[in-house]
User: Fold these one by one.
Assistant:
Number 1:
Amino acid sequence: MKRHRLTALFLILLPLTGLQAQTDSLISEAALVHYSGQTGRAGELIRTLETASSSAEGKELTELFLYRGLLHIDLKENEKASSVLAEGIEYCSLQYEEGGDLFYLVQGALLKSHWMLLQKTGVLIRTGGEIQEMTDLALRREPDNFTARLLSAQGLINAPPLFGGDPEQAAELLLDSENLAVSDAHRFDLYLTLADARRKKKVWDEASLWCEEALNLFPDNPSALEMKELIRKKKK
């Protein structure tokens, strides 16, 4: 009898495990399309991500919200992006309130960081403060959380000095976080944010160097190419 129960349990878990692997593979594909600037594949992939979202839950679902939003942004479909990201923010908030899992606090902050750039100035300023509070809390609990460090650095770069902005401190935090980057996407985000930090301080050669490091990972990334052109014009 016990053996039959174990067999039945295995048969139930097998398709779930396969589904999770399929979702993980889809998320990896979405990340590659986004970072590589392959907008021609974005529309079809968004539809696939939407289908996957209907049966996903937990951490995988938050990643699906993120990349659906980012791909809509890549296609300049900002209203759709804002709606998807807002849904993801709400989901993360509920999950964090229910279980206190740090992942959802950080992922919620990450989703907010993309959502706020699609909003009006007043909302952007208020949301920037909310994200900083979330990342501060996350870093108190887990000082080596890469995404929380990255978001904190971005806040230091973008905030006015009157509100705690400090690009030099941001650069130091990022350099101290390089060993925590576990993927090309992480390293790309770190290098491009470092380029932005040095750009803010008008250290053009260093800004250019970090931008090239980002482009070495994803040569066709639109954000990195835009940063490269911005730095080139300022260096003249």
Number 2:
Amino acid sequence: MLLAAYQYKFGRNIEAMSRHLIDDVAVGWDELGTDLLDDAPPALVTALTGGEHWPSRTLDHLITPDGSPPVRMSVTDTTADEQDMQWGYVLHKEGVEVISLLHEDVGPIVSWSIDPRTAFNDHPAAWSSLDSPPAIRASRGRQSHSAPAAAPAKAGTPRPAAARR
């Protein structure tokens, strides 16, 4: 979904995408929705979402146990473990870095120009930074119809962290 959002909603403008996903959100995202696919061709939206539509939701209305205002979470090895995070995404000018937090501290970069419908292996170990690029691995192993970087977040699943380098 991030590939399609970059290509269509944000018009290939990484700064606009970073502002929307990172800078303009007070705390973080509960769920990234199909509103990120605004301006994408309807056939692409259907291919990525199965025709479903749901809004993005932020974590801006959290209530902390002590009543203090919620703060943006900094993702570290410890907080990723505590939150049961499985994936991290880092926005780069050349593409999105996909990090399997279960296996790596860094990950391969998926080019922003790749077709968002490209099938990628969704097993975390397949996203080792020492392996070949994910688009090449798409023809090997178990496959899904979307990349971890492009998969729509569903309610009840761990949410990825996004960062900018």
Number 3:
Amino acid sequence: MKKVFASILALTMTAAMLTSCGDSDSSSKSESSSKKEETTTTTTAETTTTTAETEAPAESSEAPAESGTEEGEAPKDISEMPETLASYENASVYWKADTDITSIIEPFAEDTGSGAYVPNTDESEVAVSIEEVAGIPMAKIEVLSKTEDGENWAIPKIKIHMEKLFEGHEEDLEKIFTVKADVVTKAVGNFVSDDGTEMLVPGNFMGAFVTQPTDGNGGNSWNDLYDFGESEWVSEWGSYELTMRPGIKAGKATFVNSTDPQFVSIMRWSIPNQADFYIADLTFEDEDGNVIECPAFAK
């Protein structure tokens, strides 16, 4: 909190100075800065689109000024992670050590069998597995590929089979109003800043949370309902709750009662350091906020 208050004070003082000097751009700069303070847990549905082609933001090896390195802040041990999972106690889907996770979560990138992958806007080949983190079995999304220029780790993009989570209970799919995911990011390699400082932190975690219902003709729409933007610059791990509400976009963004493939999808923009992310759990709620159970994946 001390870091946030310091940033707000600095912005206020800067705006005041610019105003006194007659700088007409000060208000727009202040507004732009304030938008960066939005958090994942206060999300609402955004624009619905039918294409998966989205331009990623430019990457930088410079950590934000508010990188959490001020005096008094210390890295948190991974053993503290479980208590940060917002929905874990009442989630719809839990993973187990023997969950056949590769049949439920698939990468968009296609493994060619030769160590290469089918490129699509710098999309990464990923490996999906179950790994226990601080005592909790999680779906691990391991990033394996770099961008073509070799400067960044490429975009991991995965789809979660909703028809398999709700197999035998397909009538509950159309009741889903809200989707939540507890997600953990974990550094694999060091982040190197422009001045050469190395930090074992996951850094930026930015991307899109998406629904892909069946279109009834063997295809799926792409509905980008929440563009998240998080980061961790102190500890080697970060924890976030992603929330989207397809029910607000009634129509093609919502799931339907069908055995056809339909998905919840997540993509993370490329970053300069290697970091994997984990899906700890999934929660589906109806319009009244009641949790919709997936009996085969109960705790």
Number 4:
Amino acid sequence: MKARKKSYAKDLPRRLYTFFIGYDDERSAPSLQKFARANGFTTEELLTFRRHGDFERALRECNEIRRDYLIDRGLTKRFDASFVKYLLDGEASEQQSEEDSSLSVTLEVLP
């Protein structure tokens, strides 16, 4: 039996944002994977919803919420600060590589 693919709902960006802003687990950080499992989606299905402007904006804001959450936990020594730095550095280099990949250069050869 083939699993039915979940479809986009207008309230999904609000649910995503609410999940991240209300997350309060001392042992872990909010993530897209946790939201997906809690709502019956796969991470891949959620990422296909990025084409919807509201979802893309909510996802970017949730990434900032997660970043702030990790920083706060690192500063209060609830999470290992070195590991938090490692995670944040990885996110920064991933974002930079995404931005770098969209660069296009046009050369014109003059006689």
